[in-house]
């Protein structure tokens, strides 16, 4: 069977709910690029569906990750709805190199610890990739909610690794979806960077917001 046939077969095997979750996931990314608050309701419904689907499919780790996304969708909506004039509102900003170094370092350590557990319990076919994608997805979602410009660069790496992970585990349609995500997050980075450069200094130049 060719790769294209495998992708088509994987797409045909999708349930109606899974298709809805996929479309809402794409809508979430598009709206996030546009800095629209409606990105988060799309993310909430999409991840709610995926939480149930993965639980019923006996993938508790992925189900738990999407349950986390549910909470972050609520947090992101609450954060983004605040007027920019309020004290606790957020604007697109950057983090210092030290913040990124600490974030990446802690993410790597947590990923290794989780992967060791997965390997010892035979809970995952590819424990290190599985753990890395999960841990950095969690961390990067926080950066997205906080409107950290570099979140898009993290997503390029995370989604790129996820493509390989899903290819190795037979989720071919999801792999193609991740490839589409990579294109969208690259666009997102350049659009947010333009908005960041156009913002007043008081809003944009915040390294620890």
TrEMBL record:
GO terms for cellular component: plasma membrane. Keywords: Cell membrane, Membrane, Transmembrane, Transmembrane helix, Transport. InterPro entries: NMN_transpt_PnuC (IPR006419). Coiled coil: none annotated. The chain crosses the membrane at residues 12-31, 38-55, 61-80, 101-120, 126-145, 152-167, 173-192. GO terms for molecular function: nicotinamide riboside transmembrane transporter activity. It comes from the Bacteria. It is a multi-pass membrane protein. It is found in: Cell membrane. Belongs to the nicotinamide ribonucleoside (NR) uptake permease (TC 4.B.1) family. Required for nicotinamide riboside transport across the inner membrane. PANTHER family: NICOTINAMIDE RIBOSIDE TRANSPORTER PNUC. This is Nicotinamide riboside transporter PnuC.
